[in-house]
Amino acid sequence: MFNIKFLTTSILVIFSFFFTACLTDNKESKEQVKSLLTGEPSEKYHMLSQKYFKEGEYRKALKYNIKQLNEDLKYYKKESSEIALDYNDIGLNYDKLKEYTRAIEYYQKAIQIDNIILDDNNTERATTYFNLASSHDALDNYDEALEYYLKALAIDKESKETRSKIDELKKKIK
Length: 174
Description:
Elements (H helix, E strand, L loop, with lengths): L3 H32 L8 H11 L3 H16 L7 H16 L3 H18 L5 H16 L3 H14 L4 H14 L1
Helix pairs in contact: 2-3, 3-4, 4-5, 5-6, 6-7, 7-8
Protein backbone atom coordinates (compact mmCIF):
# COMPACT_ATOMS: atom_id res chain seq x y z
CA MET A 1 0.00 0.00 0.00
CA PHE A 2 1.46 3.33 1.10
CA ASN A 3 5.06 3.65 1.96
CA ILE A 4 4.91 5.02 5.53
CA LYS A 5 8.48 6.32 5.45
CA PHE A 6 7.81 8.31 2.25
CA LEU A 7 4.55 9.70 3.62
CA THR A 8 6.14 10.76 6.93
CA THR A 9 9.06 12.43 5.15
CA SER A 10 6.70 14.27 2.80
CA ILE A 11 4.61 15.57 5.70
CA LEU A 12 7.72 16.75 7.56
CA VAL A 13 9.02 18.57 4.47
CA ILE A 14 5.68 20.31 3.94
CA PHE A 15 5.51 21.41 7.60
CA SER A 16 9.11 22.64 7.54
CA PHE A 17 8.37 24.83 4.50
CA PHE A 18 5.25 26.18 6.18
CA PHE A 19 7.12 26.85 9.43
CA THR A 20 10.01 28.58 7.64
CA ALA A 21 7.60 30.77 5.67
CA CYS A 22 5.83 31.81 8.87
CA LEU A 23 9.10 32.78 10.52
CA THR A 24 10.23 34.76 7.49
CA ASP A 25 6.94 36.66 7.21
CA ASN A 26 6.95 37.42 10.92
CA LYS A 27 10.54 38.67 10.84
CA GLU A 28 9.83 40.98 7.88
CA SER A 29 6.71 42.45 9.44
CA LYS A 30 8.49 43.11 12.75
CA GLU A 31 11.31 44.83 10.88
CA GLN A 32 8.87 47.12 9.04
CA VAL A 33 7.02 48.08 12.22
CA LYS A 34 10.28 48.68 14.05
CA SER A 35 11.92 50.82 11.36
CA LEU A 36 9.22 53.08 9.95
CA LEU A 37 7.26 55.89 11.50
CA THR A 38 4.29 57.52 9.83
CA GLY A 39 4.40 61.03 8.50
CA GLU A 40 7.31 62.95 7.11
CA PRO A 41 10.74 63.48 8.67
CA SER A 42 11.81 66.99 9.52
CA GLU A 43 13.96 68.64 6.87
CA LYS A 44 15.48 71.18 9.27
CA TYR A 45 18.79 69.30 9.52
CA HIS A 46 19.01 69.06 5.74
CA MET A 47 18.40 72.79 5.40
CA LEU A 48 21.09 73.55 7.98
CA SER A 49 23.55 71.20 6.31
CA GLN A 50 22.97 72.89 2.95
CA LYS A 51 23.43 76.33 4.53
CA TYR A 52 26.75 75.38 6.16
CA PHE A 53 27.94 73.54 3.04
CA LYS A 54 27.38 76.66 0.91
CA GLU A 55 29.25 78.71 3.51
CA GLY A 56 32.20 76.31 3.40
CA GLU A 57 31.67 75.13 6.98
CA TYR A 58 31.92 71.46 6.14
CA ARG A 59 32.26 70.10 9.71
CA LYS A 60 29.00 71.79 10.68
CA ALA A 61 27.36 70.63 7.46
CA LEU A 62 28.53 67.08 8.16
CA LYS A 63 27.09 67.21 11.67
CA TYR A 64 23.67 68.12 10.30
CA ASN A 65 23.88 65.60 7.45
CA ILE A 66 24.39 62.85 10.02
CA LYS A 67 21.47 64.16 12.08
CA GLN A 68 19.32 64.16 8.93
CA LEU A 69 20.36 60.58 8.19
CA ASN A 70 19.34 59.50 11.69
CA GLU A 71 16.01 61.34 11.29
CA ASP A 72 15.37 59.77 7.88
CA LEU A 73 16.16 56.26 9.12
CA LYS A 74 13.14 56.57 11.43
CA TYR A 75 10.83 57.10 8.45
CA TYR A 76 12.36 55.41 5.41
CA LYS A 77 13.59 51.93 4.62
CA LYS A 78 17.36 51.54 4.68
CA GLU A 79 17.21 50.87 0.94
CA SER A 80 15.46 54.09 -0.07
CA SER A 81 16.50 56.96 -2.29
CA GLU A 82 16.32 59.34 0.69
CA ILE A 83 18.90 57.32 2.62
CA ALA A 84 21.13 57.00 -0.46
CA LEU A 85 21.02 60.79 -0.87
CA ASP A 86 21.93 61.23 2.79
CA TYR A 87 24.94 58.95 2.34
CA ASN A 88 25.95 60.86 -0.78
CA ASP A 89 25.69 64.21 1.05
CA ILE A 90 27.81 62.86 3.91
CA GLY A 91 30.38 61.68 1.36
CA LEU A 92 30.47 65.14 -0.22
CA ASN A 93 31.27 66.71 3.14
CA TYR A 94 34.06 64.23 3.80
CA ASP A 95 35.38 65.05 0.31
CA LYS A 96 35.48 68.75 1.11
CA LEU A 97 37.25 67.92 4.39
CA LYS A 98 39.80 65.92 2.37
CA GLU A 99 38.83 62.76 4.28
CA TYR A 100 38.60 60.77 1.08
CA THR A 101 38.58 57.31 2.63
CA ARG A 102 35.52 58.24 4.70
CA ALA A 103 33.91 59.80 1.63
CA ILE A 104 34.43 56.55 -0.30
CA GLU A 105 32.82 54.61 2.54
CA TYR A 106 29.63 56.68 2.29
CA TYR A 107 29.55 56.75 -1.51
CA GLN A 108 29.78 52.95 -1.49
CA LYS A 109 26.82 52.79 0.88
CA ALA A 110 24.89 55.00 -1.52
CA ILE A 111 25.85 52.79 -4.47
CA GLN A 112 24.72 49.66 -2.63
CA ILE A 113 21.29 51.22 -2.24
CA ASP A 114 21.29 52.56 -5.80
CA ASN A 115 21.99 49.04 -7.08
CA ILE A 116 18.83 47.84 -5.34
CA ILE A 117 16.38 50.63 -6.08
CA LEU A 118 17.45 52.42 -9.26
CA ASP A 119 17.47 51.49 -12.92
CA ASP A 120 20.88 50.86 -14.43
CA ASN A 121 20.79 54.14 -16.38
CA ASN A 122 19.47 56.43 -13.65
CA THR A 123 21.46 59.67 -13.45
CA GLU A 124 21.60 59.48 -9.64
CA ARG A 125 23.87 56.48 -10.13
CA ALA A 126 26.09 58.50 -12.46
CA THR A 127 26.41 61.22 -9.83
CA THR A 128 27.40 58.75 -7.12
CA TYR A 129 29.89 57.02 -9.44
CA PHE A 130 31.39 60.39 -10.34
CA ASN A 131 31.75 61.34 -6.65
CA LEU A 132 33.30 57.99 -5.84
CA ALA A 133 35.72 58.34 -8.75
CA SER A 134 36.74 61.82 -7.58
CA SER A 135 37.60 60.53 -4.11
CA HIS A 136 39.65 57.68 -5.53
CA ASP A 137 41.37 60.16 -7.85
CA ALA A 138 42.28 62.37 -4.87
CA LEU A 139 43.88 59.33 -3.18
CA ASP A 140 45.84 58.51 -6.37
CA ASN A 141 43.82 55.30 -6.77
CA TYR A 142 43.78 55.84 -10.52
CA ASP A 143 42.50 52.43 -11.58
CA GLU A 144 39.48 52.68 -9.28
CA ALA A 145 38.92 56.29 -10.28
CA LEU A 146 38.93 55.41 -13.97
CA GLU A 147 36.55 52.49 -13.37
CA TYR A 148 33.98 54.73 -11.67
CA TYR A 149 34.38 57.64 -14.09
CA LEU A 150 33.69 55.21 -16.92
CA LYS A 151 30.61 53.87 -15.13
CA ALA A 152 29.37 57.44 -14.70
CA LEU A 153 30.01 58.20 -18.36
CA ALA A 154 28.24 55.03 -19.48
CA ILE A 155 25.10 56.38 -17.81
CA ASP A 156 25.49 60.08 -18.57
CA LYS A 157 27.11 59.99 -22.00
CA GLU A 158 26.79 63.77 -22.47
CA SER A 159 28.73 64.73 -19.32
CA LYS A 160 31.56 67.03 -20.35
CA GLU A 161 32.83 67.13 -16.78
CA THR A 162 33.20 63.35 -16.62
CA ARG A 163 34.94 63.27 -20.01
CA SER A 164 37.30 65.99 -18.82
CA LYS A 165 38.11 64.07 -15.63
CA ILE A 166 38.83 60.92 -17.64
CA ASP A 167 41.19 62.85 -19.93
CA GLU A 168 42.98 64.38 -16.91
CA LEU A 169 43.25 60.97 -15.29
CA LYS A 170 44.71 59.37 -18.41
CA LYS A 171 47.45 62.04 -18.40
CA LYS A 172 48.27 61.20 -14.77
CA ILE A 173 48.50 57.49 -15.55
CA LYS A 174 50.98 57.99 -18.45
